[in-house]
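Lab meeting tomorrow. Please check the following:
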Amino acid sequence: MKHINLKIEGDHESGFFSIFLVEIERNEMSIPIFLTSEQTNLGLEDPEEPFEPIMELLNILLDSGFSIHQTIEIVNGDESDEHLEFVQNFNNKIDKGWVSEIQPINIKFSNVEDPENSNIELESVGGSLYTIYTETNDMSPVEMANKLKIIFSPK
């Protein structure tokens, strides 16, 4: 099985974890994915589902045969018992991929006529979908897609 390192950054305050950045890394190549405020707010709707904003991304990786080594980085935290328990439960966690062989991840642009002004859509063979909104990233959508292809490569 192939491993993907996933660094998840966010704030943990008043019992809620709000994710604003996910960094995907494999074979010393990484790419940051900045979440939109709408995505971040999904994690604030239910404290029992703090990873809701990236759940489909996690499903795509696991469905495609990648094991995920997840680390949590709290940028702003209240150091409450809930905060410390959250880090203890979810930092340095490994989830095994659901299949033994790497499956292809479909990477496409939301606007095929104009990829440079497009978001990136990821889809697993199992049908999980996740949209990477590219407006806040320093890389162009084409650069991001090319980097993702290398990171998700079966080699």
Summary: The mean pLDDT is 93. The beta strands are 2-13, 16-26, 29-34, 66-77, 93-95, 106-109, 120-123, 129-132. Residues 106-151 form one domain.
